[in-house]
Amino acid sequence: MTTPFHHEPGTVPPPQCPAHNLDIGPGGLRRLHGPEAENNPAGLYDKLRAEHGTVAPILLHGDVPAWLVLGHSENLHVTRTPSQFSRDSRRWRALQDGSVAPDHPLAPIFTWQPICVFADGAKHERQRGAVTDSMERIDTRGVRRHINRFSNRLVNDFCEKGTADLVGQFAEHLPMMVVCAIFGMPEEYDERLVQAARDMTRGTETAVASNAHIVSVLTRLVERRRAEPSPDLASWLVEHPATMTDTEVIEHLRLIMIAAYESTANLIANVLRMVLIDPRFRARLSGGHMTVPEAVEQTLWDEPPFTAVFGRWAVGDTELGGQQIKAGDALLVGIAPANTDPTVRPDLGADMGGNRAHLAFSGGPHECPGQDIGRAIADVGVDALLMRLPDLELGVGESELHWVGNIMSRHLVELPVKFAPGPQQKLDADPLTVMARAPRPADAWEISSPARQVPEPRHEAVVAQPAHAPGAAPTAEPDPAPAAPPAPEPAAAPEPAPVATIPQQRRPAAPARFWQAVTRWWSGY
């Protein structure tokens, strides 16, 4: 099949052409933005699949052509074959010929940066290795204790009122609290940081200022950790044998923060919505026939936190799903459509219990390294919320819920709920305030296992500025485009081998139901 991209970006269709439809562009190609893409993405995927098969030509903003990969196996091939489909956006032919301007609405997503998500081969292995090794040092059982405390702190803020918005008052805050704890900067958590993380990926007029605030916070953190290492992710990246520069450490911390925040906030909101609107789902959960982790996994199939990832760029001419892909073509990894591919899910209503073949966290060398921590935040957070508010009900009609969408994800704007008002739960102390205190008494900690020894790193004499900071010197990398907030692989922050310190916590009272006791034990508190 020949390439359907025979038009020029921005060409105006003739009168009576179906391209005058807001959802149809030049050449009769469907747009992956606009009303239909935002309001009914599943319906759009079905149309594209019926018209083109497993790989469909689509139009991005400005009617720039690209390919959306719909098939499950085709997506796996794209993500697992960097020799054919690179993450280096500088290969994009539309960038090289000027079809895509530097101020394109998607520039924050595709603009090349010297970080692992835009790298292949040895460079990717070095940077990704530092990130993965550092994440493996996180004590996941200790993180679960933090998540439980943070969740109860958030519920305390609205439990006496009987009403709440679980997006704005819970789902959007819990991931940032956990990220700040893992990074080693609990004192930096505040409303401004949460709003900046929300704002910088949504193409608003204030996105640049929001990005600058996050970079400033992370720059201070890296400066502190160069001088005073601590058992946290920032220190482990600074000290890693890969000898990452301060710029690299700051940029990768920013990548992890935004990826973890965005994906996990969406996941929590989607799990809670499914629990509230599907009576069978809620009944199975409360009756002990489904655990919270199983509910999270089902949500990752049905409502993945990222619907697509932009992008991959064809290294040379090739064929994929019967389509002729040209060198320099852009492709989107279609996470949501891959999860509904009829070849792997002929019955979308079937229970996918225990099946992790979904692509919610992408695949291949760039698969999200923090997916287990993302699951943990959702598992423990949702469980803690439901235990505190067992009679939770949707506060509005299901039809009144609405989303804000883009090519990468759909954000549930609000999730109003009502419940019987209840008392606040007594916490030992504000968890973030306790974590920010230093030094801590020696008997206030449990040590799971000793921290691994790493060679003495080569420190820089001067802290490097991020490439996108005002007045920063240009990077030594060849021909980079101006840096911008990265397009993260769907992610959230990771969960492997325990090593870090964990604060002790009182054991909660035994729950009334056996399944609650089991899920509490599984969650690590």
TrEMBL record:
Residues 451-511 are annotated as: Disordered. SUPFAM superfamilies: Cytochrome P450. It comes from the Bacteria. Residues 477-497 have a biased composition (Pro residues). One of its GO terms (molecular function) is heme binding. Belongs to the cytochrome P450 family. This is Cytochrome P450. It comes from Streptomyces griseus subsp. griseus (strain JCM 4626 / CBS 651.72 / NBRC 13350 / KCC S-0626 / ISP 5235). The gene is rarE.
